[in-house]
TrEMBL record:
Belongs to the histone deacetylase family. GO terms for biological process: epigenetic regulation of gene expression. This is Histone deacetylase. CDD domains: HDAC_classIV (cd09993). GO terms for molecular function: histone deacetylase activity; hydrolase activity. Pfam families: Hist_deacetyl. SUPFAM superfamilies: Arginase/deacetylase. It comes from Patiriisocius marinus. Residues 18-280 form the Histone deacetylase domain.
């Protein structure tokens, strides 16, 4: 059974007019249920992750500043959120959803998190709507508990996973792969183990050709025993914070290919949603729900 992390705190409401589409975290589970993609039994509710687990990745001074809501204006501006206790709490539940998802993926091949993909969070600061890095913390947890020995992070959000790249820069057990818009945020890129920068307006054909020629070779080279997949849908044409030209159909084909490849090689995969900023919320929800359709098709309905 496909297991999906969701907690009511995910849908925390930002001040009116904020550009981050928090509504998607409420609307997506509703659509999955309405369309029969999932049932209530697919969902599990994460708990609050421990500070000890977070501090395997995040700097203690930064973490304590988050808990105390004592970051300065410059740090908060960089984060992009009006810092609130509820947002800090929310980040803890998202991380636990990703960690527990890893455990379900080890059993079932795959698991999903309605939120997460907070790849702009560095060890010692947050950026671009990311406070704490859920997949980085979960990856270290797997290594610490010896549930994995070699991890591949496949980041297909339109923005480079700069925080993740920085965190694992000197960690040989984690290979970071980011395929993103070359001219998009972050404008000063970190160095992943493999970066592929795409031109503006890159279409489905070119996007999928590059991905399909890259990912299988990476699996042969890296030999991972666990994969994290960041399935951002901000690769869509017209996305407010993206610059690529992919269609909804191309985005779903991307997800199907990633899942087919993971399953073919019997490598468990944890999936976090990442970005999606299309002008119409319905497009964001449809594209994200297609990721769940793809997972169900490849792993449970094949």
């Amino acid at each position: 059974m496909l297991k999906i992390a969701y907690h009511p705190i995910y849908k925390y409401q930002l001040p009116e007019g904020h550009r981050f589409p928090m509504a998607k975290y409420d609307l997506l589970p509703q659509k999955l249920l309405k369309d029969g993609i999932c049932t209530k039994t697919n969902f599990f509710e994460p708990s609050k992750v421990s500070a000890k687990t977070i501090l395997r990745i995040h700097d203690e001074i930064y973490y304590n500043s988050l808990l105390e809501v004592s970051l300065d204006r410059k740090e908060i501006r960089k984060m992009g959120f009006p810092l609130r206790n509820e947002l800090v709490e929310r980040a803890h539940y998202i991380i636990d959803g990703t960690i527990k998802g890893c455990e379900f993926a080890l059993q079932n091949g795959i698991a999903m998190n309605i939120a997460g993909g907070t790849h702009h969070a560095y060890s010692s600061h947050g950026e671009a709507f990311c406070l704490l890095n859920d997949q980085a913390v979960a990856a270290m947890h797997l290594l610490d508990t010896k549930q994995a020995t070699k991890i591949l992070i496949v980041d297909l959000d339109v923005h480079q996973g700069n925080g993740t790249a920085s965190i694992f820069e000197n960690e040989e057990r984690v290979f970071t792969f980011s395929m993103h818009g070359a001219k998009n945020y972050p404008f000063k890129k970190e160095r992943s183990d493999l970066d592929i920068g795409l031109d503006d307006k890159t279409s489905d054909v070119e996007y999928l050709e590059i991905l399909k020629s890259t990912l299988p070779k990476l699996l042969t080279k890296v030999q991972p025993d666990f994969i994290f997949y960041l399935s951002g849908v901000d690769i869509l044409e017209g996305d407010k914070l993206g610059r690529l030209g992919c269609s909804i159909e191309g985005c779903m084909e991307r997800d199907l290919f990633v899942f087919e490849t993971c399953k073919k090689h019997s490598i468990p995969v944890q999936v976090s949603m990442g970005g999606g900023y299309s002008p119409k919320i319905d497009i964001i929800i449809e594209a994200h729900s297609n990721t769940y359709k793809a997972a169900q098709k490849i792993y449970f309905n094949g």
